[in-house]
Write a structure and sequence with these properties.
Helices cover 39% and strands 19% of the residues. By secondary structure, the chain is α/β, with parallel strands linked by helices. The protein has a seven-stranded mixed beta sheet with strand order 3-2-1-4-5-7-6, with helices on both faces. Bound molecules: S-adenosylmethionine. The site of S-adenosylmethionine has 19 residues, from helix 4 and strand 2.
């Protein structure tokens, strides 16, 4: 598999806006490094729920992580861009599909990631999605989540403002609906496996956290 620098990844996107977004996001957000670090030792396929323009898949390939990736997003413009960029970059083993995660998840057994999308779901839909996602994780596999966490911090207020701005500029189709708490993740996921939650905001002002769930062999 060819190795692409972050600049080459950004250059594979067809529109100027996506190229600019990809370059800036990959350069400044610690998200993709965290994902690659946790997936480096696994050969399980990955289901990427709310994959956007597919930056995770590109980044994983750039780190030599060659597992099959199935990306889902309900924004068909982003899926179209993701497909074009993957083809342009010569990536293989990657499928992008237009799909609304509120309508369920496809069959999958492996690792799963949910990166920066939970805030678009109401509390009930979040719980349903987390349970469904956990059920798609193979025993010993990982569910990796990045989410803003609802708490009393100034970072949380800036997170909400940033998501409202993304909606106002039409980068996101939806405004944020609800942010889960630390306790929500514990309550919903810990019956099925082991959970670790740590800050993952890097140099950004957002209240982003990394939620790492490992499914127990006998869990859920
Ligand atoms: C902030 S972006 C994150 C994109 C990608 N996960 C990343 O981190 O590079 C959130 C994505 O979630 C998608 N999304 C929101 N609600 C969704 C739903 N119900 N089903 C599928 N995708 C959804 C949006 O279209 C958007 O691409």
């Amino acid at each position: 598999m060819k190795s692409h620098t972050l600049r080459e990844i950004a250059g594979s996107f067809p529109s100027h806006w996506d190229r600019h977004y990809a370059a800036s996001k990959l350069r400044t957000d610690p998200l993709y490094e965290a994902l690659a670090a946790d997936l480096a030792a696994s050969d399980l396929p990955l289901l990427d729920i709310g994959c956007g323009i597919g930056l995770s898949a590109h980044f994983l390939r750039s780190r030599g992580i060659d597992v099959p990736v199935h990306g889902l997003d309900y924004d068909s413009r982003k899926i179209h861009s993701a497909r074009q960029a993957a083809t342009s970059a010569g990536l293989s083993g990657i499928a992008f599909e237009a799909h609304d995660a509120r309508k369920g998840l496809p069959d999958h057994q492996g690792n799963v990631c949910i990166l920066d999308i939970l805030q678009f779901f109401d509390p009930e839909a979040q719980e349903t999605l987390l349970r469904l996602a956990a059920s798609r994780v193979a025993p010993g596999g990982l569910l990796l989540i990045r989410s803003g966490i609802r708490d009393d911090s100034w970072r949380f207020k800036i997170t909400v403002a940033g998501d409202l701005l993304a909606k106002a500029t039409r980068w996101m189709q939806a405004a944020p609906t609800h942010y889960p708490t630390h306790e929500d993740f514990e309550r919903i996921l810990s019956p099925f496996g082991d959970l670790e939650i740590r800050p993952l905001w890097g140099k950004t002002p957002f209240n982003n956290h990394w939620i790492r769930f490992t499914r127990r062999a006998s869990g859920g």
